[in-house]
Structures are given as structure tokens and as C-alpha cells.
Fold this sequence. Notes:
Elements (H helix, E strand, L loop, with lengths): L15 E7 L2 H11 L9 H5 L10 H15 L5 E6 L2 E2 L8 E12 L4 E10 L2 E12 L7
Antiparallel strand pairs: 1-4, 2-6, 3-6, 4-5, 5-6
Amino acid sequence: MGIRSIDWEDIKIGEEAMFSRVIDKETVGSFIAISGDINPIHSDEEFSSKTVFKQPIAPGMLLASLFSALVGVYLPGRDSLYLSQTLNFKNPVFVGDEVVVWGRVVKKVESLGVMYIKTEIKRGKQVLVEGEAAVKHLNYEKRK
């Protein structure tokens, strides 16, 4: 699938999008290298075995970065400008987990061309990360 392109007028309250991703060791390693988050809870098996999780956990911000793909590729896609994102980390993600990234439009502010998207990342039915994104739709400006 390419980048979705949906016009402002065609976006409805309740519109949803989702995709899945496996959080593998290479992805975690790349995120650690890019972000500089070298906390051993993400990569050191001996260290993390002594924590409540008993194994390394994926960085929370790695998961949160998947909301960027949700907004920039799927909902609304090409014509999006990310304004803000709230985040609540509910449960850990481990290397090898497959997660589903989901969003649903919950509000549109017509005068501003801004939509609010409820965002979640789940493993099965378990919520891992939840929040809300504010997104400006760029082709809204073309209507003026």
C-alpha cells in the first residue's frame, strides 16, 4: 500500500485506519542507535532479567513513533501535519511482539481544518499505548 490521500471533506467522524508491525530486535537496535536511549532495560538481557519484566522491553517512544506512520501514511495520509500527541504507556512490549496500531477520528474542527484521532497500540486485546493526536489537514487550506 502507498500513502493514502483523503480529502478533508471526505473524512468522517468514526473513520478508522490500522496496520500491524512486529517489534523485532533490529528495529529496537535501530531506534536505540537513532535516539541514543541506551537504557539497559531495552537491550541488556542480564540487566532486564532482574526487573519486573524479566526480559528487555521495547522503548516506549519507539512504539509512539508508530503513530507517525498512522497519521502520515494512513489517516489522513499525504496531506497531514502532525500538531500534537498525548501518550499513556499501559503495558510493555517485548522483542518479537506483533502490535496493531489503530486510530479513529473523534472530532473535526471545520474552521481550523484540524482533526482529533484517538490512537491505540494493542497486542491482541491488551492496550499497550493510548492517546490522542491533533492533525491539521493541509488540503483544507486549498478550500479558502
